[in-house]
């Protein structure tokens, strides 16, 4: 009997690694757990989980002997950790290895927004550059005021990069951190009020739902740009769309959305938004490192060792 | 009689500043100097120059009393400085104030290329994200090996930013510079051979023509990406196009081209090139600073003071 369940949309390289090291049963999503027979379900000790569909009490009931759920990704909001903890199920994620990629994307999205790089590219490619000459002037990014919402590992990587762009760095976090003179704000509205660029780097889940509220977005003001690389849930998306449509803020650059990949069609009608398809950690190098860390957590559990990167 | 000639495509803000401080005669390009009458030409003491059309002996012959040509932009390859020096004409440019913008654009272009951000955006906007799911994996940028060709003021700004992306920094310059442990290469082929990303930050003009030669491009190899924010003339553009078409290098990100804005149509057919319409310094803030520095150079000359930023 196989002891591991691999749930989610794994690519070929990832499946090769999983099969080699864990010989799991593969399922496309948590809903398919119910299709396994009782003997298969009872044999499962560990789950390698990937995806954004909820994995909670229902699935845990069906897997009575599961002791660990190893999530692929740093954000583990799809997994009901409270429920897992109550049952003594250990949960792990894949932190650290993806910070660089997510920070790279955040910085590039911010500059693309300020410098209108997609529009400028389209201007050149459409022949307008040749016909009409210079592209319109846009907005300087270096030296600007930026606010990071959540100065965890990824927020810190973003701030470290933007410091090299001579930006005046402000941040919100629950407690003041040890920084090179960056300005702590105890209130996200105060943070948004102090900056032109606001970058959301929160953990997802119920505790941060709509943390970037209508009031925070309003405080950003008409020169304000919102960048989100965390989760769609952290922002009041309706208020964001209203602000983008009315010009209450200048623009946004978003890698994450509610209901992705079927995102709100209002985003597509806006020309002041840089849209990325949730590819923050989407490089060959980083996804291989994430897949390895996930497998190593499962192997640690099956070998009766401590999980490498536990979250509960 | 007015003493100043303002030559080139100035925008409304720039014209307002020029008129206020210098009341110049405006010409759209150097070819129009010949249309002025002799008395007007003889009265001209200083030229405020903007543009990429050649300004040399012909124009200087027509302006017998000109003593200074103040260029708008850091690159002054349109002006024949040798000819100016021989006649005792002082030439100035606008260095410093545009370094940040050009470096910002270079970094964002590099990440856009590595992370396929334009393709990913199109994937989302075309509905493919909603229909087909995740965008394909691409390439990690942070931690990579980058080579800067020309470690002048702009090259240095680019390198300082990329150091915050934990990149392994190599550079070519005529002499070794004082750096935080970056690797100097005396030969551009050796530089290209050592890195995956090559960023061209040379001064334009005859001395650097095709400095990034066919051999340099070949040494970059199949994982190589070329970024150019200097001048189209610094790169063997035919060899670059061949290498991009054949896959001899992985891609390019270009803000400058030969014959811009009517660039080689082969670029438009490539999907591994990020194209920008020479907008390196194209922000409201920086162009205002460049215009002011140009006027200040003219005013210094007319007031019999030293030019602020002379080049000869």
UniProtKB/TrEMBL annotation, chains A, B:
The keyword NAD applies. CDD domains: HPPR (cd12156). Residues 44-312 form the D-isomer specific 2-hydroxyacid dehydrogenase catalytic domain. It is an enzyme of class 1 (oxidoreductase). Coiled coil: none annotated. GO terms for molecular function: glyoxylate reductase (NADPH) activity; hydroxypyruvate reductase [NAD(P)H] activity; NAD binding. The keyword Nucleotide-binding does not apply. Its EC number is 1.1.1.79. Keywords: NAD, NADP, Oxidoreductase, Pyruvate. Residues 107-280 form the D-isomer specific 2-hydroxyacid dehydrogenase NAD-binding domain. InterPro entries: D-isomer_2-hydroxyacid_DH, D-isomer_2_OHA_DH_cat_dom, D-isomer_DH_CS1, D-isomer_DH_NAD-bd, NAD(P)-bd_dom_sf. One of its GO terms (cellular component) is cytosol. Belongs to the D-isomer specific 2-hydroxyacid dehydrogenase family. This is Glyoxylate/hydroxypyruvate reductase B. It comes from Thalassobacter stenotrophicus.
């Amino acid at each position: 009997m196989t002891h591991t369940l691999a749930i989610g949309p794994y690519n070929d390289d990832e499946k090769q690694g999983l099969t080699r090291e864990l010989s799991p049963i593969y399922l496309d999503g948590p809903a398919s757990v119910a299709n396994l027979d009782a003997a298969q379900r009872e044999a499962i000790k560990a789950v390698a989980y990937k995806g954004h569909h909820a994995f909670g009490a229902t699935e845990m009931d069906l897997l009575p002997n599961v002791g660990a759920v190893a999530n692929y990704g740093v954000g583990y909001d799809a997994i009901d950790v409270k429920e897992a903890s109550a049952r003594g199920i250990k949960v792990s994620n894949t932190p650290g290895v993806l910070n660089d990629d997510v920070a790279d994307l955040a910085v590039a999205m911010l500059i693309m927004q300020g410098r209108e790089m997609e529009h400028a590219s389209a201007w050149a490619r459409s022949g307008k550059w040749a016909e009409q000459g210079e592209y319109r002037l846009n907005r300087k990014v270096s030296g600007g005021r930026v606010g990071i919402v959540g100065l965890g590992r990824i927020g810190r990587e973003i701030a470290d990069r933007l410091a090299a762009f001579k930006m005046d760095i402000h941040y919100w976090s629950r407690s003041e951190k040890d920084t090179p003179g960056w300005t702590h704000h105890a209130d996200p509205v105060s943070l948004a009020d102090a900056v032109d660029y606001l970058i959301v780097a929160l953990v997802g889940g119920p505790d941060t739902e709509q943390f970037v509220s209508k009031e925070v977005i309003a405080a950003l003001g008409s020169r304000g740009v919102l960048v989100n690389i965390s989760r769609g849930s952290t922002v009041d998306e309706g208020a964001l769309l209203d602000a983008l449509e009315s010009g209450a803020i200048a623009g946004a650059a978003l890698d994450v959305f509610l209901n992705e990949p079927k995102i709100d069609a209002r985003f597509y009608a806006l020309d002041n938004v840089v849209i990325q398809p949730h590819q923050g950690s989407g490089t060959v190098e980083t996804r291989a490192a994430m897949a390895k860390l996930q497998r190593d957590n499962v192997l640690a559990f099956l070998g009766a060792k401590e999980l490498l990167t536990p979250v509960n």
